[in-house]
Fold each of these.
Amino acid sequence: MKVEASLLGQDLEIEIGTRELDEPGPGEVLVRVEWAGICGSDLHVFRSGTWVEYWPATLGHEVAGVVEAVGSEVAFSPGERVVLDSRLPCLDCPECAIDPDRCSQITFLGESRPGGFAGYCVVPERSVHRVPDGLALEDAVLAEPLAVVLHALAGIDAAPDSALVIGHGPVGALVQIELRRRFEDLEVDVAEPAERRAQLARALGARTTDAAPEDRDYGLVVDAAGYEGSLKDAVAAARHGGTVLVLAIDGRPSGLSGREIVESEVTLRGSNAFVDELPRAIELLAAEAGRYRPLVTGAVSLPELPETIRGQLASPDEVKVLVRP
Amino acid sequence: MNALATAQRRTGSIRRYQPGRAADGGDAGKLSSNEHPLGPSPAAMKAICASAPEVHRYVTSEELRGAIAEQEGLDPGRVVVTNGSDELCYLTAMLTTGPGSPVILSEPCYQIDELVTRLHEAEPRYVPLKDGGHDLDAMAEASQGATLCWLPTPHNPTGRAVTAQDLESFLDRVSDGCVVVLDEAYRSFAGSDFVADTRELLDRHPNLLIQRTLSKAHGLAGLRVGYGLGPAGLIGMIDAAKPPFNVNVVALNAALASLRDPAWAEYGIDLVRKERERFEDFLTDRGIRHWPSEANFVTLTVEDTDRLQAELARDGVAVRDGDDLGLPGYLRVSIGRPPEMAVVRGAIERFQEHDNGGASQ
């Protein structure tokens, strides 16, 4: 079937066109996309082409929609409202043989097969999660990035004495929201130079600064920015023995020396995507969607996507923008 | 005359207030009552929950009154806290009008203003709007001999606002004996040209009563908190006339928390302004007539409002029919969250694609 879709060429030009989509095969589900979220990693791919395995690519891995059709041996039915797991384990590696959540060759929807910046997409059944009644799809689409944050904050069961979030894009904002949900009285500071993002942080109760403070004050520092040197700034802001949580994907050298880590005795922890947190994210959204809604600062139609992406690449002031194909 | 006959006479000519409808299913919501797109602030919600142990007490509004006075740079004696700004409408009409009192209203007007005017058997003098805005020259002229003038700006149901300069000029011309109620329910959403300096305005015009609400920018519509700012004399009389515990303790605590944490309101206001601008640009591009709005809604007109409403309803969106607001042929669309507005734009595109009924007027 032909579907309207965003197409990213190898020259990194974005346009709206049509692409041929195979009918769902055995174990696959055709989903009519109602909402797709623009992720920071999408912007990275739009900028660099990294991770893409086919061209032209249709990105979009934060997807909520309705089952349109199913292949054989599928437990879903047309009409069911669903969100998608963005991860596509290879199901072939030794790790997958033990647990596909630990796949060493994992790829993501949109990068290895057409994703949600389109009218429809086809995904394996294991990627599909039902949305409970009462949870709007425009809210459910936040489940994927929320799962990323739940995974990142796993193990932080006691309130840190203080927290700093560097970068208040979608992930940074969700970290702030989650920290406040878990630890109501925790004061969260946010370092964010973009005014709209900083304004949201303040609205959610944070004190904000343009840049990360240099004082070693914070029991928990989250690097959700990924600018050149953000990791070094994060370590510098952590108090002796504090924890630095790295969520931003930045390939540049950090300039961080081993001495800085040794002498400050910080715990440095990375977190990549999520494992089994998507159902919990859906539960949280169903229970309290209003807590998470403020981070959605824009919504556009599919034809508006190329201009929106160009705007965001030039000036990243939005927090979460949703696409309605 | 018996009591029932009196009640019948007073209510016989009023139009019962019609609340906005809720959305019926779908993924987007209720855009029919100009409510806050995100709800109350986290601080307000915390205050609401923390208020439960206090509800056995009679609590006055003095603390909130003081906080508002401080925010406005006024003496607390020039502030009165009311159960929503609608209560202030009732109190003002009760105190300043009576059978046969001439009262100035734009036409169409805010429904509650008309309702309380008629309830007190006052005599409404309607001044038709000019292109959706108040005809201030005609209103000033009509004010001679009138006791009360209702002036909502930005105006509901059109969203048009009076500039600070025009307001000043109007107030200079209004008869001294006529109280002007400047209803600023939507002030927060207006551009700077349309926002007058409150203290200066009150100091210069002793017949001015400013009406505000925490229903819109603070998202506390369901709790009913409003307030009035005005000359100490009039405010004192309103204060004496109002019920002593007219605002409940939960609402008072939420209002205080919300005022003390303005970042939430500022974020919501910016969100509304951005989405409003985007929606107005969209309507202009599609050739759909609308009034330029300074409020948290946009009022538009198409040839077939029923069909557009049906198209919106398909996506679970309810807007306000102009028939409810004295504007037949119009729809008032509250500005919602970005996804809701994307749904509205999509429904309007479908409406226009179906046929050209609403495209170019």
Note: The radius of gyration of chain B is 20 Å.
Amino acid sequence: MTAVTADTRFAPRTGGTRPLAGTGALLRLALRRDRVMLPLWVLVVGGTTASAANSLGAFYDTPEERANVISSMATNSSLRSLYGPVFDDSLGALVSWRYVAFMGAFAAVMSLLLVVRHTREEEETGRQEMLASLQVGRRASLTAALLTALIANAGIALLVTLGLAGEGAAGALALGLAIAGVGMVFATLAAVCAQLTETARLARGLTAAVLGLAWALKAAGDAARTDGSHPLTWLSPIGWAENMRAFAGERWWVVLLFAAVVAVQAVVAYTLAGRRDVGMSFIPARPGPAEGRLSTATSLAWRLQRGALLGWGAGFLLAGIMFGSMTEGAADLVGDNENTKEMLERMGGQAGVTDAFLAAMLGMLAMVGALYIVQSVLRLNGEETAQRAEPVLAAAVGRVRWAAGHLYVAFGGAALLLLLGGLGLAVGYRKEAGPLLGASLVQIAAVWLLGSFAVLVYGLLPRLAPLGWAYAALSLGLGWIGPALNLPDAALNLSPFQHLPKMPGNAMEWTPVLVQLALAAVFTVAGLVGLRRRDMQS
Amino acid sequence: MTKAITVSGLHKAFGRTHALDGLDLEVEAGEVHGFLGPNGAGKSTTIRVLLGLLRADSGAAQLLGRDPWHDAVELHRRIAYVPGDVTLWRNLSGGEVIDLYGRLRGGLDKARRAELIERFELDPTKKGRTYSKGNRQKVALVAAFAAKDVELLILDEPTSGLDPLMEEVFQSCVEEERRRGRTVLLSSHILSEVEELCDRVSIIRKGRTVETGSLADLRHLTRTSVTAELAGAPNGLSALPGVHDLDVQGHRVRLQVDSDKLDAVLRSLTESGVRSLTSTPPTLEELFLRHYQDEVTAAAGGEGARAR
């Protein structure tokens, strides 16, 4: 046996031997951990799209009807920026037009959550350290995470293809691939971000910000041209999904574009992963102050959530400015088209076309604001289950005061976001801000109601806290797809946004606003009472 | 020659922090080796280099005769690791995790697994989120001790959170591993545990090894406390080399003496007639404290004192 010489150097920084060892076991581990979440995502995203032919077909049942609606939608730049370009008047093309971008974004969110969950989160919690001490190669966990995302996206593509095959097999396949393609682009992007940041939260935020940017680019590009050929559209993966032109002379080569970007991002992620140590990141955490000034539960909550609020705020302001600057284009609308008028009325407006457009945009911003308030409220659940609430509550801080700290940030932050959105609209539209700010504040009633529902669920049924998302998601879905589906009023009325006055353009109605505010107060109080009485989760 | 671990001149910096600053470590095959040092001394960093989780900036490291970075995966078949803070997946049961770790390592001894679960009084059906810290620790311990064909166990403060009863079970498990010829690297702050289990220890500080050897060797380097009741007045004790902290009250003497100078002190005491005598070898704790307190001395004495 040779003696170990002192000048033995470490081998160059390579993956080591068998870098993929253990991938299969890690993949099974991921699928086992996600045994509920993953099928649910696939069913919701894939199933909703797959059943769209039925639901849309019931509304637009003759080709003439479809042609009529589509021609009016396609000629209006503002509506195009929301829903994308229409390429054909077949039922399949209608489904693709209405769903491809929206479901692509959903697949992207699913993918980024999955990938970050199985990469950076494992490192952040220290579980990766234990796994890496076993027969697990350096590239195994990243590979397993990407394979998990691939399986999920493939599941969605399969559901869409099978469900819509009746409208044309090629188109169904193209639509499925387009949605899954967007998913995989963001899966690999999340893999890159997971190498850069030290926390899973930041990795998710970074990827989600790029997703928001991709949506904005697509919206701007589609506003400018009728056929999705604007360079801005082509900068966005969601734009590529539109440009697959499912059910309208499919462009199969776009699949290669998805594949190329997925491949490049995967290579970047693997290269970065190979250049760093387990648990380390390329954006290192900056040192904090040696002495803290935080002295209350509320200041702690603000400190914990301010970064996220800042990001959301910037997004709302920018989105507001972008939508505001598109408002003039809404006047292009052909005035005497009954279908379009009806569509706009369903979307929220009644009076002038620009007012209707602004009201619709405010409504949309408010629905996104509901997502902010729910995630901010559910931060309580995260703090509790991660045992970080325990030491705070062990100090001289009551549960209600602890919870109130986060709720101030959630409810106050939501109001701030709506104001920023309204301000953005005013800046982009170059009109006085007052009415728009007022109109945006009206929406707060519905947003707070959805937030208070999350408080209620969290306070009373903490194990089911993720259900706090359910009401917001339902309202978002009704607002987005409901108007096109001609759903009965009873269904549409489930969304609190449906009841608020469509402003600007309509007179203020106090009743629904006050009722919703009162309801929000009741839910919040009930949730807090529940929180005070129940056991804390261990 | 059989060395399980050979580390020499290991350096690792995180930004401006030098976690390892020329660390040396040698662990013989078949021994239980204690790895001691104050918080932040670089113990965990060393272990993570040995596991191939970190790549050292310079220096050499060999584990069971191979490169811990390049051959990480092959090596891990022969290594069992227990971290000081075990995190489990919230919705997987403890039993599932033990089997996962076992499969990923290359085999689990079923009978031993059952026996260990019994001895550690672990409920393997509970979900990860419901375990207490001690129980999470047990999950990793069972997985490690039940591992098949493992030659080296790397335990990083493995008993944090265990109750004294379980601490005893842990110690008998390590004893069994030693008898089966396995090597154990045990990083710990529980000095009684180290004293009980370890053949040799290495003490590190600020990323360097300051002391290494058997406990007997180390004791030799330090002081023995002597308390004696004498027949007559002591004389000449203060003049003897190696005597410290001399305290004489009538016929009662307390002193500390460098262990290699003990002989002369005893001679001097017997000259005055000894009525009773207690001589206490330094505890590991005293050894340990001495090295930690050197820090203060070194800071006062400048670089020279630290270079030793």
Note: The longest helix of chain A spans residues 399-429.
Amino acid sequence: MIATLAFYLFAAITILSGLMVISARNPVHSVLFLILAFFNAAALFVLLGAEFLAMILVVVYVGAVAVLFLFVVMMLDIDFGGLRRGVMTYLPLGALIGLLLLVELAVGIWTVSERGAANLAHPTPEGVSNTEAIGRILYTDYVFYFQLAGMVLLVAMIGAIVLTLRHRPGVKRQSIAAQVHRRPKDAIEIVDAKPGQGV
Amino acid sequence: MIPGIENSDILMPEYILAVGGMALLMIGVFLGDSAQRTVSYLAILLLALAAAVVVMSTGNGRLTAFGGAYVADDFGRFVKVLALVGAALVLVMAQGFIEREKMGHFEFPVLVVMSVLGMMVMISANDFLALYMGLELQSLALYVLASFNRDNLRSTEAGLKYFVLGALSSGMMLYGISLIYGYAGGTGFEQVAATVREIGTPIGLTFGLVFLIAGLAFKISAVPFHMWTPDVYEGAPTPITAFFSASPKIAAMALFVRVMLGAFPDASVAWVQIIVFISLMSMVLGSVAAIGQNNIKRLMAYSSIGHMGYALVGLAAGSPQGVQGVLIYLAIYLATNIGVFVCILGMRRGDKNVENISDLAGLAQTRPGYAFAFAMLMFSLAGIPPLAGFFAKFYVFLAAIQAGLYPLAVAGVFASVVGAYYYLRIIKIMYFDPPAESFSPAFEPSLRVLLIASTAFSLFFIAAAQPLVLSASAAAATLFP
């Protein structure tokens, strides 16, 4: 009973804050609502007994992704009003496409076969925690995809550096090796100044 | 042996590219951009080594690894060799251009190697997850390559357009895959095929199939998902355009064939009509829209749209002959296209590359050898016998007729007659128009060798077609157990 109530509470807040993300006028508010949506989704995971996923969602999405969004929103001077200007013109077309996708999804779920539905649920194996079960799937069954995902991220990193890094000439950088290798004789000159003669 | 990684040594070519690519990255990082030439040559060696490993494993039969996610068969090996050779040749021809244009960053060959790694995974994908991961790895590297000349407005525009539309198509494809997964309860091609055999194609599964085809059609730039192609081809630096028109198209086409015949062999009623439609539209649009083009790279974009349409005719046939036709088509398309892009790279006045078709005027009087090679390649692309391009079209149309797709074959022949116009127009401009200012520096030796090889392939294909046709036939047979 309480679990059901909790589910509806968290689910409703998730959907509402999702709506607020796209409708809030202030982009910082959008990101804050996004964080609220992440927290409630994490709560839904806890209700399902997937506490590891819940923690990961909070750590990764709230801790890293949402903070990154906040930085981007605050640091880039984006004219959000200007971005929204064309919305009303494209709304009918967008709504139509959205509706079509929704109908297709509904038809899909409606007609999904018993066989498929039975296969869909992967219960946690007996005797192991769900963290361990995820680990087994990720690093044993899906190790191929895991490694490939690593390559995709590597390419993303190379791409970001190639497209944005500019080496400016004339920038002074600290060179630890050069500093460590400095000897007194490179830097100091001892001059024996005679009285009355100057250097 | 750790469970789950049995047979994983069949991924040797992929390991070579992944580890080698990372090693090249390290070399580049420590030696800086001055090592670009070294990294590029090492990348060519790496691709050649991977190709040699693939060739040596030919005939090992059908092997799977990682729980059936990865399959190595002769079909995959044939296409992998094409993709690897295409990428290596592009690196050879790119070297002079990127040094001239001051784009000599060592990341260029590394990104090419990474995208080829993605293509290898795509070609060997036997699972929708592997399909998607390979596709993303390949596409991500290609988006960066398209905007590699980041100080050039058109290059960055090309990269951005490619990225936005590519992401959209990936989204559509994932939506389709999720619907298919809902029915099959798994993502393996065999599992999907078993589901289709058992329950047929309910409406939701057909939706998924359509979205999947839409995403794949985007990757091979088939009509109606072709809009990005001319802009990206025109904006990207020329050697990278050559790369776009070669390896990624070949890999995506192979993936298309493997998905349709591997996961939906019993749903052919549902997908053959879609393939027939996009094939027909691509052939017609590729022929008609190219007529009005003045930029040679845009023209080649429409040409590649048309050629993908012809190759899809073989897939529409859905028979071993059809797949054999697709493979022969891809091989000949690759060889001819490399030659054409060498010709486009040779369109230089001093340090500047020109791209207008009118710049070619009277080339036959100023540079007769160049004009002859270009003309032969154009004749081959137009499909005029006895050049290579004719046999490419011959095998796919033959398969279509054997499969009873007479209207498609007839329409294809008509489209190729219309398409011959714009290829012949280039020849007319080169041979019969009053000469424009000549192209000044001669070809670099490496480009000259490539051009001669490509032209010779087009001219003498008829004499040496046997090995290619036989190996394509053997490769196609592995898809039909």
Note: Chain A touches chain B at residues 101, 104-105, 107-113, 115-120, 140-145, 148-149, 151-152, 154-156, 158-159, 161-163 (CB under 8 Å).
Amino acid sequence: MRNLRLLGALAVGAGSVALAQDPELSAADTAWMLVATGLVLLMTPALAFFYGGLVRSKSALNTMMMSFVALGFVGVAWALVGYSISLSPGGNDFIGDLRFAFLNGVSLENKGAVAAITIPHLLWMAFQGTFCIITAALVSGSIVERMRFPAYLLFMTLWSVAVYAPLAKWVWGGGFLADLGAWDFAGGTVVHINAGISGLVAALVLGTRKDFGRQAILPHNVPFVLLGAALLWFGWFGFNAGSAWGASQSASIAFVNTMLAPAAALVVWALLDLTRTGKVTAVGVATAIVVGLVVITPAAGYVSATSALLMGAIGAFPSYFAMLWRARSKLDDSLDVFAGHGIGGMTGAILTGVFGQKVIAGVEVGYFNGLLAGNPQQVLIQAFAVLIAVGYSALMTFILLKLVGVITPLRASAKDEATGMDVTQHGEEGYTSGEGAILVLESGEPRGKPAAAKS
Amino acid sequence: MKLVVAIVRPEKVNDVLEALYKAEVRGLTISRVQGHGGETDEVQTYRGTTVKMELHEKVRFEIGVSDSFVAPTVRAIMSAARTGEVGDGKIFVLPVEKVYRIRTGEEDTAAVTPVA
């Protein structure tokens, strides 16, 4: 997403009144953004597979459900209030107002949005909503296999409004971080640092799984993890190239960078694996793809293709070693949301300040120069934005979890956890044979004896 | 020699393995089984189809031991697999007529004594 400092200034105070500077609605841009919005929405089910494969089979459904329900609960919260308080032109530098609550006044014209757009305002709202959904789902990776589902639903819904929306306002909605000149193309700060830090705090508040550190807890379906990584990468083209808000040269460089950075991260990760253990791992490669994508996200439309390769390669290191450390620590951030998205997001945000350049491949599509282009100050501005995001995200997540904990217990009982979250939270199993199951009729009387086990 | 057959909760398997290891019981076989021992039925629903899970997932241990190892083996399983609720499982101790170690042809007690 582009920085809205200039664009936003035009819209602030103007409300829904059409501005003379409003660009024309573009069919080409609209076509691409329709596709991009669908692509980003696909990332959430993709994440369900990525996360679902990484947990034990007795909690596979529960873990996948944590992502899937975000499509509903966060999607609805976004339409009702989230969009308005994060991206309405009114309010102040810290939070938007409620003018777009219940999508009131969000039209099919390209007018009224906080930014100058060439696509219908309503489509832009939907595109932004898919970001909020995936961010909330990302957090779930750190608290899998132990959080009561009702508590999770409440926490996630509140989180999308109280944590995501204000942060989106600060960075993308013409808020104070945008005014400072911090740049975040597609969500390094708002999405990844935010989810990573919230995940870290949530893991600390909830505590470790009962079995953590006592016995090996292994991924139950590595092919799911690879499938999830593949679909995430595919969806991420919409996430990054869609953040140009049009079918443009900016979208093209973001698209290319989204292809190259994960490629470089994958190579570095595989070589690190190879030199350290002698084997290249599948879970490692899937993780590398995600880390590469996270790192390039804030920079996607601001850096050259060569820089994207460098960013992917450099970005693999901090996350790789953070994960090695985490697995041996007492921190049960179960699916490494912090090491992957938190550390990866910070690396990406800082490197955006290093590699950013106005002129990319002969065309001026960037918006600022970074350290290498002679503007070292940009690195400090980026770092400041990172600190603000870390502080706010950590504090608010902690408060929200404590609040939800007062209303309803956060942790499943030790027995439920041991039996598996699928059966205890959902009354279903991911992998059930049906053998020994008795059909319960409405009278409540079981019909017949259990079917004989197949030979 | 005896064959100790134990049916335990799947979530207790790691605890049992750890206890057996500490009791220096080495050779064992486990298998996933389904069974019913009087525990409360668990109700599941799939799109309006409600079912009771009459058979529960369990894990069966089969451990061939020399006579002196029977008591430690049973003690280890008993303490590690117990939760105190219905469905903790059973331990059976069966007589064994003959044991052979396939690799060496050793018989009986020699065959169930772990290789040093």
Note: Helices of chain B lie at 13-22, 67-81, 108-112.
